[in-house]
UniProtKB/TrEMBL annotation:
Short name of one Pfam family: NAD_binding_4
UniProt protein name: Fatty acyl-CoA reductase
CDD domains registered for this protein in UniProt: FAR-N_SDR_e
Organism classification: Eukaryota, Metazoa, Ecdysozoa, Arthropoda, Hexapoda
GO molecular function: alcohol-forming long-chain fatty acyl-CoA reductase activity; alcohol-forming very long-chain fatty acyl-CoA reductase activity
Protein source organism: Anopheles melas
Length: 286
């Protein structure tokens, strides 16, 4: 179900026409908007992985820097007995949002929870939610991933690879799409001594690896995992590298960019998001 975080007010049907003049939330044209604020103005954003470390940081940045954003849709699963609405509320319990709440007390009106799970086919999104997303979303960030190095290959393939394909499928159906960013990791290319801002050959082609994981038993895939990994140290970096191949092959005709951060944690400045020295990002026009 797609509803506002705290109430069931209907979603404003923006029709997603973000390239019009840029009235602010006050309705006035503001020529002082930065290029980035103009880009986001009146846009609806869809984020996967919003409950995670980088996802929270992204939500914070969008809410504080781009007040013209219409709605932020968050794909969230229920977890450990908590429903998606409690989980979305918990995102904002983090102290990092304290100042933002003072400056923008009505932030929650923009936050909309979408029930979904990367473990499910089609991200487990209901058909009604899918329609809301395809009709309204302009900008997509796909961050959801299992970041466990020792994740079972089948689970890592489902969350990191198949869900990435499902997100891109969803994006293909979006009627007013402006931008898609897939968050990878610099460690997908750990066999390289230097990583340039381009695609590299994957450890195995994504469609073949998906087919393999679909066909063999859990026990069998675990037995052959060390052979499959080859030069990759773990299932995390391996499946994220396969996901890059999914992005390369499934983004035809869409404005897709890929971001490969290095390590980002609370001790690394958030500007890592735009600092080439902390990772790399590039646009892909298939
Ligand atoms: N932090 C870093 O140093 C770093 C560096 C390079 C790249 N990255 C990339 O950045 C992205 C985010 O990383 P992070 O550090 O923020 O990781 P994180 O804190 O572990 O967050 C992972 C996010 O993915 C979501 N997720 C996992 N499995 C899911 C599922 N089955 N269905 C729906 N959502 C699911 C989690 O939701 P739940 O809360 O429901 O589990 C959480 O929101 C990842 O793609 C990662 O590869 C991170």
């Amino acid at each position: 179900m797609t509803v506002s975080m705290y109430d069931d007010e209907p979603l404003a049907q923006t029709g997603g026409q973000p390239d019009q003049p840029t009235p602010t939330t006050t309705g006035k044209i503001d020529e002082q908007l930065t290029a980035i604020q103009q880009f986001y103005d009146k846009c609806n954003v869809f984020i996967t992985g919003g409950t995670g470390f980088l996802g929270k940081t992204l939500i914070y940045k969008l809410l504080t820097s781009c007040p013209g954003i219409e709605n932020i849709f968050l794909l969230v699963r229920s977890k450990r007995g908590k429903d998606i609405f409690s989980r979305v509320e918990e995102i904002f319990d983090d102290a990092m949002f304290d100042k933002m709440k003072q400056a923008c007390p009505k932030y929650d009106h923009k936050i909309r929870a979408v029930a979904g799970d990367c473990m499910q086919p089609g991200l487990g999104i209901s058909s009604s939610d899918r329609e809301v997303l395809t009709e309204n979303v302009n900008i997509v960030f796909h961050l959801a991933a299992t970041v466990r190095f020792d994740e079972k290959m089948k689970t890592a393939m489902q969350i990191n690879v198949k869900a990435c394909r499902d997100v891109l499928d969803l994006c293909h159906d979006m009627k007013h799409l402006k931008s898609v960013i897939y968050v990878s990791t610099a460690y997908t290319q750990c066999p390289q001594s230097v990583v340039d801002e381009r695609f590299y050959d994957p450890p195995l082609e994504s469609d073949k690896m998906i087919h393999l994981t679909d066909c063999v038993t859990d026990g069998m895939i675990e037995k052959i995992t060390p052979v499959l990994l080859d030069k990759w140290p773990n299932t995390y970096t391996f499946t994220k590298a396969i996901a890059e191949d999914v992005v390369r092959k499934n983004s035809r005709g869409m404005p897709v960019g890929m971001f490969r951060p290095g390590i980002a944690n609370s001790r690394v400045r958030i500007s890592a998001f735009c600092s080439p020295s902390q990772g790399s990002s590039f646009r892909h026009h298939a």
